[in-house]
Amino acid sequence: MIKNIDEINKEIRENENPPTREEAKQHFVDMTNLLNLKHTFDFDEAYDIGLEIRRRKEFREKISDLEQSVIEVSNMTEEIVHKANPVKHTFAGGCYIREIYNPANELIITKIHKKEHPFFLMKGEMSILTENGIEHIKAPYQGITKIGTKRAIYTHEECIFITVHATDNTTVENVEDEVVCTKYEDLPAGCDALEILKEINLKQE
Questions:
Q1: What residues are paired with 97 via a beta bridge?
Q2: Which residues, listed in sequence order, are joined to residue 123 by a DSSP beta bridge?
Q3: Given its phi and psi angles, is residue 13 left (phi above 0), alpha (psi -120 to 50 degrees) or beta?
Q4: Per-residue pLDDT at 7 exceeds 60
Q5: d(C-alpha 95, C-alpha 167), whole Å
Q6: What confidence tens digit (pLDDT) does each residue in 154-192 have?
Q7: Using CA atoms, how far apart are residues 5 and 37, in angstroms rounded to an integer?
Q8: How many angstroms separate the CA atoms of 113 and 151, rounded?
Q9: How far apart are CA 144 and CA 150, in angstroms?
Q10: Positive or negative CA dihedral for 146, 150, 153, 159?
């Protein structure tokens, strides 16, 4: 039996074991032929985009759950956290430089980054989990934080981590409002990779 598009979408949303790639491709072919459709995309493009959307959504849900679990288990106040992870703030030449010390064997869940910026691991070794998977880095190391990044970090050693942000602001509070947020909905319009994927134009010709 050929399923209509609403049935297929409902099955994918609600089923933890959605149709296989082969089954989904057959649905795609059947509906295309039945409705005499022409597409600006092929099945593989549409399927891969769907998988990427699902993967990113699952990561965001899981890292949010992990963050809540860490808060509940650690039972540490913000004051204690800041004392264990002291931060040095520097403003120079239109840049805000943030240097943070993290003790060894610490699990850290970061906020969501609203702007692209460089980072530098000056000391130590850490494993970082993002939407793109797990990365193990060791000082000296430099990289780029992309918009929408939220990290789970485990420090294998004492670490010194520096980020540099271009800004016209001159107070720490204002810079933090500019460069990070706690909800993906607060990312600048048109910058969230997940929302961009959802809005990719897959209209029929």
A1: 90, 164
A2: 160
A3: alpha
A4: no
A5: 6
A6: 999 999 999 999 999 999 999 999 999 999 989 888 777
A7: 13
A8: 10
A9: 13
A10: positive
**pLDDT tens string 8-50:** 555 555 565 667 767 777 776 666 667 676 666 666 777 777 7
Distance CA 125, CA 176 (A): 25
Report how far Cα 159 is from the mean position of its chain's Cα atoms: 22
Tokens of 63: 């890292």
DSSP per residue over 129-176, as a string?
Answer: EETTEEEEEESSEEEEEPTT---EEEESS-EEEEEEEE-S--SHHHHH
- On whether the CB atoms of residues 203 and 40 are closer than 8 A, the answer is yes
Contacts of 45 (CB under 8 A, 6+ apart): none
Under 8 Å between Cβ of 160 and 122: yes
Q: Both tokens of residue 37?
A: 């459709």
Cis amide linkage into residue 140, ω under 30° from 0: yes
160 CB-near residues (< 8 Å, 6+ apart): 99, 100, 101, 102, 121, 122, 123, 124, 139
Report residue 13 as tokens.
Answer: 């949303």
Q: Report the distance separating Cα 196 and Cα 193, nearest Å.
A: 5
The Cα–Cα gap between 150 and 130 comes to: 6
Q: For all residues of the chain together, what is the average pLDDT?
A: 83
CB 113 within 8 A of CB 147: yes
